Amino acid sequence: MLRYFTAGETHGKCLTVIVEGMPSGVKISIDKINEQLKRRQKGYGRGGRMAIESDTAEILSGVRGGFSLGSPIAIKIENKDWQNWEKIMGAETANSERTVDCPRPGHADLTGGMKYNHKDFRNVLERASARETAARVAAGALVRQALEPFGIEFLSHVKRIGEVEDTADVNETDFFERVSESPVSFGDETAAKQAMEYIDKIKADGESCGGVVEIIAKGVPAGLGSYVHYDRKLDANIAFSVMSVQAIKGVELGMGFGVSEVSGSRVHDEIKYKNGFSRMTNNAGGIEGGMSNGEPIVVRAAMKPIPTLYNPLRTVNIKDKSEHTATVERSDVCAVPACAVVVESVVAFEITKAFLDKFSGDCIDDVKSYYDVYMERISKF
Ligand SMILES: Cc1cc2nc3c(=O)[nH]c(=O)nc-3n(C[C@H](O)[C@H](O)[C@H](O)COP(=O)(O)O)c2cc1C
Q1: pLDDT, tens digit, for every residue of 270-280?
Q2: Per-residue pLDDT tens for 326-349?
């Protein structure tokens, strides 16, 4: 079973991720991991840290000569700013500089402090922070390489930033090229300009914002996941992973909450047959009964506004319980484009996991053999 663990604090020495369950013989490119890490760092509205950071992955184990060995793969992402944090974050050297006393509403600070008995909220925020998502992006970028020979690809874009919606059609040719060039990952240039103006405005007001991201997985064969048991349902596993991303407060598949507003015939995707089965629409977002149905998998997630506000909200100082404003830690104002890359990565991980569960094999050649047999069988169904 494909799984991963991450370790590391936001200003710690490095982030580490260990991925277990990759079959042997998968061609691994470190450039492809770094490409995704770079995408995660971009976007209009990011904080000062992005100027210092240029994340690069180092593979410590499990890959030899560009191919996976079948053993656990460890990846390290160094903190390029470590020399400025060693005294504050070192395992043995840490001092009490940069103590955080005033918990930020909307962040993990207060409840995390109560739970783990940390009176310095830095001990909480260092791990709760979305810096950890760099490790998850590395894991997703690594494992999705196993799906490349099967023609499965993952795309993402931003649908909304605060008040501004991108209404461009994802099916337009060059939509995703425009997205890759857009500072807000929109397909429509006019809407992108409005979104940037909106970010400028909230920044000037000391505010922050959230938005909606959409992920599309193409080429996923019918039959990943299962209807037979709750924890094998692909939609459930995707929703769990996406909801675990920092600041995500809603997850939808296909038509999502919209299914509750219209009658059945406008929701359910009619079936046709022409050299195989397909659907006339894709309101289900590619998953029915907890299984991929062969249509593109479409996942949307809502990100709440960033909790750190430069015009901070009211809170209470832990030392004397006096009224105070929240601590301001260097922060993004808008991280929705980065969030799209993170959600894309966790969706890629879940789909790769479901793929390797279905076509299980110790080496990728065995996976491919089983895949071919299965695809041949369902093509004649
Ligand atoms: C890509 C990304 C970047 C983020 N950047 C920040 C940030 O700079 N400052 C901040 O306060 N929160 C940031 N967040 C959100 C917090 O990490 C998150 O709100 C917090 O950990 C509390 O968790 P919850 O919102 O899931 O309840 C970011 C989230 C993501 C996905």
Answers
A1: 999 999 999 99
A2: 999 889 999 999 999 999 999 999
Cβ of 354 below 6 Å from ligand 1: no
- Write the CATH number for 293: 3.60.150.10
Q: Report the b/e string of 41-70 with b at 16+ CB within 10 A.
A: bebbbbbebbeebebebebeebbeeeebbb
Measured in Å, residue 145 CA sits from the centre of ligand 1 at 27
Domain count of the fold of the chain: 1
Distance 204 CA to ligand 1 centre (A): 20
* Structural domain harbouring 10: 3-379
CB 129 near ligand 1, within 6 Å = yes
- Which of 306, 308, 309, 315 has most ligand 1 atoms within 8 Å of its beta carbon, as the pocket-test mutant? 306
Residue 104 CA: nearest ligand 1 atom is 11
